[in-house]
Amino acid sequence: MFLFSISFLQRKAPSVSILHYIRCLKNLREVRLSSYAKKKETDVKDVTLYYYNRQKFFRLVGFACASQFIFWSWMAYFNLSQVKLADLVNLKRNRSQDEILDVTSKSKGSWKIVRFMEDNPALLAGIAVVMGLFFTTSGFLYSFRSINRLVLQGNNLRVVTHTPLGGTRSFTVPISDVSCGSSRTGTKAHVSLKIKGHRFFFLMDKDGDFLQPTLFDRTVGLKRF
Question: Membrane-spanning regions, if any (predicted)?
């Protein structure tokens, strides 16, 4: 009986291996078909809603911001380098003597401001640096908040923005985290978008192309918060 069972298993082994091989082929085919279907589904879902390429313009914006920062920094350095401590002390001493000799004279408010600026050259240098930082930050922020492309990916939205060097950067957010602040058909020159987790508004220039206007109004163009 034991020998009969061994011979029976040896006869069944080839058929079992063939069935296992067929099942593996079927499973591999199903995996390939499912991956192809998912890829095709994602390709169908990726819809470009808006596109406006201004890379050359924002490259000039970045160059202008850098020029402003260099100019105002040079102004601050030039102002400090031309003033010596001994000259500043003598200037204050002479003005104090003039005020003692002419007690009845009353300087106007504008002249007081000019004298205060002359007596404090470091303040002028600080104002110059602040001006340079203000212009540079404003230009960079405008570049990072200007939209180059909007791509709808199912329930998500991929936002592509410009950079000061003429490039682009992108990030993906749920469509529920996007709120439109103005209408696409309004009188304003830009359409503003508010995105959760990001400060300030994102701007879309109306000179760009709204490739899917109806779909844009139903998805991105809604005011959610």
Answer: 57-77, 122-144
